[in-house]
Amino acid sequence: MLPSLLAAFALAQSAPAPETPPADPPAPPPAAVLISFDVTGAEQTRVLRGVSNRTTGRPLTADDPVRVASISKLVVALGVMRLVDQRRIDLDADVSRYLGWRLRHPAYPDRPITLAMLLGHRAGMVDGLDYVLPLDADLEQVVREPALWDRSRRPGSTFAYANINSPIVAAAMEGATGERFDRLMQRLVFQPLRIEGCFNWPTCPDSAIPRAVTLYRPSGEVALDDLRGVRPACPVVRARDGSCDLSTYRLTRQGASFSPQGGMRISARGLARIGQLLLREGERFITPRSFRRLTAMQAVAPVAVTVGEGGEGGFFCRYGLAVHQLATRREGCRDDPFGDGRPRIGHSGDAYSLRSGLFVDMERGTGVAWFLTESPEFGAPRGQRSDFTLAEERLLAEAGLAAPPSR
């Protein structure tokens, strides 16, 4: 009996221990890129990390196209100003002239609404409904909804940031030219500037599709653009019956389909090129008069703070035509993520868990473009010195462009 027990004990001692299940590999860091640049065309990639897609594991590059959110509005405005210079559109005319249908504030039916009001967020419209519209939505019918209008804001008076303005701007551009918005932006902006960009993918080159940056929520769930080298089966919001036939697209009626408010896909390096154009005051692209009109700032009254682009508060304190200015020295304004008090112009972005920015210092001839992903869409920690997010303030500090936040 004893020999058997000893043999069993020896066998147990020599047996391999049960294998521990392998731990899941750590998730890659959120994608982030920041490029600084100057008026001479010099660029420096100061921050670059993360992957463009978690499944493929492809490292992010500064040339990868991403949905940059509301910076899109600034680029749309550049397209508008080119049409102004061509005398095909008038910023101060009744926009109904280009739409082919009547646009009026229901509380002020006798007051025309202009492109300048729409670009400057002073048309009296608000985002009271979902502005991401299906392919078969009729913009004329949509804007009749009372929830899209603030009865206290007369057209041309006070500022109220509203994404719904942008589809109307896109529709007016179509009416003035007879061209579909996304194709028009290729002709007016991306091709002349030699930028690989597009609105909602149809006009982006095949070479851009494998490099698309997938947007993820902080939970790891895909938010948008999980392309992995394949164009989306439907590049716009499907029609209400589930179809996606772009041949049914009607000019001036479906301006929301290509997301002019935020659907531009462009790389950080492409953004830097836009910034360099601003630093050159639109030289040989738009006239000096158009540049001055684009960047003529009006004061915005700060109100109760909510964090981030598009929210009310001290975020927008001076705004032109789809351009806003940082570092407004006025009580209630929290619009200086750099913390140096220097005025910069450009635009920010916030959508689908992405934060982005493109801002230039006209006096110094320098600028910065950035984006970072996996930021909470709601409840993101507010910055120490601004109503940008704390993550953006830390990104600027990491790049050596701002002092580190103290928390």
Folded structure, characterized:
The protein is α+β, with helices and mostly antiparallel strands and 407 residues long. It has a single domain, classed as Beta-lactamase (3-Layer(aba) Sandwich), CATH 3.40.710. It has helices at residues 2-14, 71-85, 96-99, 115-119, 139-142, 165-177, 181-193, 268-279, 288-294, 390-398; strands at residues 32-38, 43-49, 51-53, 58-59, 66-67, 198-199, 215-216, 222-224, 264-266, 298-299, 318-319, 324-325, 345-351, 354-361, 366-372. The strands form five sheets. The protein has a six-stranded antiparallel β-sheet, with helices on both faces. It starts with a helix and ends in a 9-residue tail after the last helix. Residues 5-12 and 303-312 have low confidence and may be disordered.
Key phrases:
407 residues; Beta-lactamase; six-stranded antiparallel sheet; three-stranded antiparallel sheet; 15 strands
Question: Helices and strands in order, then pairings?
Answer:
Layout lengths: L1 H13 L17 E7 L4 E7 L1 E3 L4 E2 L6 E2 L3 H15 L10 H4 L15 H5 L19 H4 L22 H13 L3 H13 L4 E2 L15 E2 L5 E3 L39 E3 L1 H12 L8 H7 L3 E2 L18 E2 L4 E2 L19 E7 L2 E8 L4 E7 L17 H9 L9
Antiparallel strand pairs: 1-2, 1-15, 3-4, 5-9, 6-9, 7-8, 10-11, 12-13, 13-14, 14-15
Helix pairs in contact: 2-6, 2-7
